Amino acid sequence: MNTLKQENAMEDVAALIDDILKMFSSAKMPHLANVNLYLGIPYTILSVFHEALTLQRSKDESERFRNRMRYAGIFKERTENTFKWDDNTYPHACPGVIEQALTIDFIRQKRNLVMSGPTGAGKSLLAVIIACKALREDFSVKYKTAHDIVTELQEARSGNSLIGYIKRMQAYDVLVIEDITFSSPDSKTSQDFFSIIDKRYERKTTIVTTNGNIKKWIKDFSDNSLWAGLLGRLYQEAILINMNDAEDMRVKWAKGFLDSMGSGDVAVNESGIGD
């Protein structure tokens, strides 16, 4: 019996040491990932050390994720439980397409996602949720409005930094472009915008949201020769989510909040708005 207890204790110590070594290795601290440093240390001391390392790693990972969100242009993490929908929410969306998008497999497959619908339909929220999931999976992400991209392209061209800006936009694993039809690029900026999308095509994932008709927007480009190529690169093998004729989510949440106020029972969801 004593022999069995000793063997179990040795296994417990070995498991703790192994985990400690893995944590230091993943933290790129090989000088501390040396098994000889921990041999002979009592289990209770190793356990306290392991617990402290685990807590610190959790804090470090949380801070790292917050920094990556800020760099991506996202200032609050959104999760799937903040996105409420059922079979009737989006009458024109293909069944299961939202669930498919939320797996983020399309990012691994280097496909695009295009979401169209009116203001308040939930396009931005879904885009942020997917972007946050991508960050959690260590994909590089940049979240911008189309207006910002157009403005920054124009500034980069005038400041002789255009090539660098385009290369950065081409390099992100996931580029989210909000309100794409709200931008009005001139001829040169249209070409620069096309260069970004062209180099990302079948190499990276681009997520686009739009309140308007993308085909009409592209045809209004100063250089109409770009429209067919840009349209194909955005839409080919993309996941399409049609959110038209959906109820305004913000109005729905506001109604729910007012109703709950009237009943004296206020429930607050993760987004800070009463359900």
Global geometry: elongated
Low-confidence runs: 265-275
Give the count of helical stretches. Answer: 11
Radius of gyration: 25 Å
Mean residue pLDDT: 85
Order of SSEs = HHHHEHEHHEHEHHEH
Beta percentage is 5-15%
**CATH homology group of the largest domain:** P-loop containing nucleotide triphosphate hydrolases
Instruction: Please give the order of strands in the largest beta sheet.
Output: 2-3-4-1-5
CATH topology of the largest domain: the name is: Rossmann fold
Q: What is the name of the CATH class of the largest domain?
A: Alpha Beta
General description of the model:
This protein has 275 residues and is of the alpha/beta class. It has two domains: 2-72; 80-244, P-loop containing nucleotide triphosphate hydrolases (Rossmann fold, 3-Layer(aba) Sandwich), CATH 3.40.50.300. The chain is 53% helix and 9% strand. It has eleven helices and five strands, in the order ααααβαβααβαβααβα. Strands 2-3-4-1-5 form a five-stranded parallel sheet. Helix 1 packs parallel to helix 2, helix 6 (146-158) packs antiparallel against helix 7 (162-171) and helix 7 (162-171) runs parallel beside helix 8 (187-200). It is elongated and about 80 Å long. The termini are far apart.
